[in-house]
């Protein structure tokens, strides 16, 4: 059974770049540019992974991480951002995200995050 991955980022290019880096052979990858409607769709899709940006025109992605973690406890949440200050990374992790991926990222960085959780036995 194929698993879902959701990408929430207001920059269309980032969503497509992540999707192409992940590939669609194993996963169904969905991209949403709007935070609030994207979260509604994320809940319906029950993804294995969620890549969520911080800055959106309609809110802050970090503000929704605790809610998403409580609603989708099995989902691996990875915050993505061009801002990678230590305090921001710590806020992302303390809010419930499992990891932080700084922009710009490479294909190896993206696949490494997915592999990291696969090897830890976090995925079933």
The rounded distance between the terminal residues' Cα atoms is 11 Å
Let me know the number of strands: 7
Classify the beta-strand content into a percent band: 25-35%
Overall number of structural domains: 2
Question: What is the N-to-C order of secondary-structure elements (H for helix, E for strand)?
Answer: EHEHEEEHEHEH
Round the Cα radius of gyration to an integer and report it.
13 Å
How much helicity do the residues have?
A: 40-55%
Q: What is the typical, i.e. mean, pLDDT?
A: 93
Helix tally equals 5
Shape designation? globular
In spatial order, strands of the major sheet run: 2-1-3-6-7
Q: Largest sheet, if any?
A: 5 strands, parallel
What is the SS-derived class?
A: alpha/beta
| Low-confidence residue ranges | none
In a few lines, what is going on in this structure?
With 124 residues, the protein is of the alpha/beta class.
Detail the topology: elements first, then pairings.
Blueprint: E1 3-8, H1 12-22, E2 27-32, H2 35-45, E3 49-53, E4 55-56, E5 59-60, H3 61-71, E6 76-81, H4 86-94, E7 99-102, H5 107-119
Parallel strand pairs: 1-2, 1-3, 3-6, 6-7
Antiparallel strand pairs: 4-5
